[in-house]
Amino acid sequence: MELGLKGRVAVITGASKGVGKGVARALAAEGVNIVLIARGREALVHAAKELEETFSVRALPVEADVTDTGSVQAAAETVREHFGLAHILVNNAGAAIRRQDREITWDDSDWINQVQIKSVGALRMIREFLPLVPHDGTGRIINVAGASGTMAWMPALTYGLNNAALMHVTGYLAADLVDENITVNAIVPGLVGTEWREDWAAATAAQSGKPKAEWLRDFCRSKGILSGRWGTVEEIGDLAAFIASDRGGYFNGAKLAIDGGLTVNAR
After folding, report:
1. Pick from 231, 213, 222: which is nearest to 266 by CA?
2. Which of 55, 180, 213, 224 could form a disulfide with 28 if both were Cys (CB 3.0 to 4.6 A apart)?
3. Which position among 55, 129, 153, 159 bears the catalytic label?
């Protein structure tokens, strides 16, 4: 399907790996020039080179920290200098669930750090990049939230809090920006097979003595995922590309679940 995105510019946070990189590849495959934002310079440069060589688009690696206003402002100025505008902003940066201890016992600084990265980080990106988003109907803001924002996913307290907040931001800004002809939507994935999650599954399956495919099917079914597998970064990227295109222009304020049936909540 021709999406008509060739030549547009997309800014993606958390873009050097995982879902962010999957979105970058899907958009680049449609001819979109990509600005990759993350904190790790080496991985950014590698990802940008891969996009340019594979898809013959311009890919600009920008090292920035979404928790720091000055860093985000500098990133926006860099994009202005190189491209002049940004048709598509994808807010994907976030901290993975690394700790299993009860989050209600965390210090204030631990809670605040989580919120600074995901929900407040997205607000910073939107505020600083909004002047670069055109008002001609091509402007898109896409927030990558997560199914934990709609359920009690143990032990992900602040993870779910951030995702729920980002879904609220999506609806609010869809209304706020409607007169500027900019759409705002959220992609709401369930479990996605990112690089670290695939490595974790392989190691855990080996410990259990089961083949990885069998272990993964059983694990996903135990979590209520009807499809019996987790999603791929390519599937998330394809959805983002459609929303970003003119064909997706009637989506506005939507929270689009792509979770293999996880939030059906079958019992």
Report:
1. 222
2. 55
3. 159
Helix (H) or strand (E) segment spanning residue 118: none
The 10s digit of each residue's pLDDT in 38-76 is 998 999 999 999 999 999 999 999 999 999 999 999 999
The span from the first CA to the last CA of the chain, in angstroms, equals 37
- 159 as an active site residue: the answer is yes
- 219-232 pLDDT, tens digit each: 999 999 999 999 99
Residue ranges covered by each domain of the chain? 9-192+231-264, 195-230
CATH superfamily of 9-192+231-264: NAD(P)-binding Rossmann-like Domain (3.40.50.720)
In angstroms, the CA 99 to CA 84 distance is 41
Strand order in 255-258's β-sheet? 59-63, 33-38, 9-13, 88-91, 139-144, 182-189, 255-258
Percent of the chain's residues with pLDDT above 70: 100
